[in-house]
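Thread: magnesium ion complex, take 2
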Amino acid sequence: MRLENVGKRYGSVTAVEGLTFTVEPGERAVLLGPSGGGKTTTLRLIAGLESVDTGTVYLGGRPANDVDPGLRDIAMVFQNYALYPHMTVWENITFGLRMQRVPRTVIETRAREALRLLDLEGLEDRLPRALSGGQRQRVALARAIVKRAPIVLMDEPLSNLDARLRVKARSEIVRLQEKLRFTLVYVTHDQTEAMTIGTRIAVLAGGRLKQYGTPKDVYERPANLFVAGFIGTPPMNLIHARVEGETLRFEERPEVSVSLPTAIASALAERRGRSVVVGIRPERIQFAPFAGTEAALRDREPDGPWTVRIPVDLRFVEDVGRERYVYAAWGRTEVGGVVPAGGIEVTSRMLLMFSWRDVHFFDPKSGENLGLSWTGNVLQSV
Ligand code: ADP
Ligand code: MG
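Output below.
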């Protein structure tokens, strides 16, 4: 399945624009983004429920813009399930196949298998209103998989379930897909769901594709400030700083400047006198008791030039079971860290520490990742 430069407008609203991405057979592609980002529109364009204004939708390698939705061989699970309220579970699951005049024995076999896979056996004669939310959601999935369509689209199928059930249901969806091997395009605004379900994630906002990559890519190499801030809990710290020769001065804390390792200083040479955004994940920040004078800190041995140590005042600590979220004052804002619960003694003044190897640099205007990442001491372009 491939979208090439796909765009769709509703009157003056641009729902999606310039969308280009490919989903390989058997992949689980997740469309992730905030509400109004164009996710549902993209699914409807793939399904043919809406027609594209620009660009081309390819299905099975062939342009499908003019193919009727009924002939696209796609199954869709809608956000609200759209079960027929007056039909039993069995009738809901088999309705599409009966309409297509699939032989009775085939219908029976497929429906039995779907009931078994989705743990719905014994509920065949119930009406949707006599089912729990989780059961309704599974009926909607069962109805989609009996079609045996090579492509299955799901629009936030778990959003009506409570948090516990969502965790269970998302692993059921992955298992089902791994067993049946259909190509899945799955829509969610929940980044954890996206990371756990997707083999690839398309981050969509404002109708535009912000990044398309594996969960590891979008987490470890966010293409821009939007993705950096959207993926990760708590979110990546995005700190404005000025490049001053071979040092960085933090705009929110102008009294603090840190010297850059040579490799980074030369990579940023063109930006001297200008701003960059420094991105550092909370889980890459460590805290240590602050002892000694600030002058002593300037002597960076024995940590070497790759470690940054900055005194901070703690503002707030949240225990979330296994971990502890730590928030430190950073001028008018805060910097967040994640540490193991009980891992640190929380005193009000601490040393915030991180390695330059874990830092991302972004252009503050375009938001683009400057494409510098450090593995060991080797400067690499992403
Ligand atoms: P998402 O699913 O990511 O929340 P949508 O694809 O539903 O986003 O919507 C993208 C944009 O298109 C929004 O601004 C939405 O208001 C608009 N939109 C979607 N469907 C219609 C429609 N049928 N008529 C007018 N505007 C629409
Ligand atoms: Mg939607």
